[in-house]
Amino acid sequence: MSSLVLLGEQPLGVELAQLLERLQAGSGLAALATAGKLLPLLEQGVLSAGAAKALQAANDEDFVSALTLAFAVLAALPAAEAAAATPKLAALLTAEPLQRSLLKVRTLAHLLNVVGNVQGVTQAARFALLLQLLEFALQATPYGAAAASANAAAAASAVTPAALVLQSVAAVQKMIAEWKLAPADATALLLANYKLAQRVAVSGASAAARSAKSKADDLSSPAAVPTVYSLGEQPSSQQEYLYALLQSLDSAAPATLREKQYQDLAIEAALHSAANGIAQTLHQLDPTHVFQLAAVQALSSANNATGTAAFELLRILVDADLPGWVAFQKGAGAALLKEHAARFDADVMLRKVRTLALAALAVEQQGAQGSGDNVLTYAQLSERLQLAKGDNEAVEAAVIDAVMAGRIDAKMDQDAETLVVKRVTGGVPLSLYTGPQSAAAWANLGARLAVWRENIHSVLQTLSAQHQQQGQQDDGEEMQ
Asked: Which of 58, 288, 333, 422 could disulfide-link 62, Cβ–Cβ 3.0 to 4.6 Å?
């Protein structure tokens, strides 16, 4: 069998195509693999130090041609030899991340699909290759000042390796289920994608060209290769990945939650939710949801002041604790708010806490009978919201904030100085059902549900009676 010499007298693509044709026309790849002659071809022709160096210097067409041969050989190898060759191929593709990075990303994805269909290659090996793909995409995506000069080809196409690889949270969670990943591996996969989403956000990358055809799409194999991994099409945001990542830690050991990387992520989630969650359409980022995550709860006993302050800030919002906010701003939270001054404007935060406090008051004052209008006086509102007595303009401004934030559905009566609350459409403070007044709150809720059940029963009876009456009228008309 002739050996493969890269960059010979004729173009590499032609040489490789001729070699592959001769191999397949002769005894066939399978027979060569059985005879133990196929792996040496791969190692000498593509994986040796000299071949790898020449391949890195080759043009894109020759690069793809070499990988076409390599993947055809890999698919025909026995499981043990394929498992041994895969890391070497991956190392070849991940060398020099800023050189034709988009082409390498697509090629790595194709390698993952080839390996995913080789019998005998372990799930652990496939998962390791997937993480290697994600890490390579991260390294190959520059940001900041480096983005202006590095990876010019990616910049010109308005897409970066990170943007190309990043998938939706739903797609990753589906993969976790289908691959039956252990909790630790699931967290590792979500963490890798979170880093990609973070890089996409700071690099200003666009996914507009993610579907553009690449030379790597021409990689062929002896038979159709079923898809094990697809490049992302509808990537999720950094915040969506952050929530999913922290949610995956809900069953983690306390020691894991105390690791710095996860504490830092929990702090980021708490701060992001506190700054944006009140008006977020993505309900997962609502403070109530984030506050209940195990990783965020672990911040209450964190060994750093930033963690405990971030936890307390989120607790204030969850409990609609207006007095707590005033104390926090002047005391334990002063350093945190100063450090993140660009994120937290004191006046804006005060309005947010007042919005939550108003919604909490509306829930607390809901009539125990569950019927009739829920009427709050301006005097009640000004006392609860810590506004000057008689300052109706401030009360009305707070009401408008709560309505615009989607927390209440209400109507003001300026003449009577009352607020008629039709319903509370936002989250209810957890402290209402867990604090000192919880017994009364649960009793109130039970009474309202009982009235609601009676009302539904009455409506059903009325509809049934009307149906019977209509049936009798129809029967009478038929007899006539």
From this structure: 58
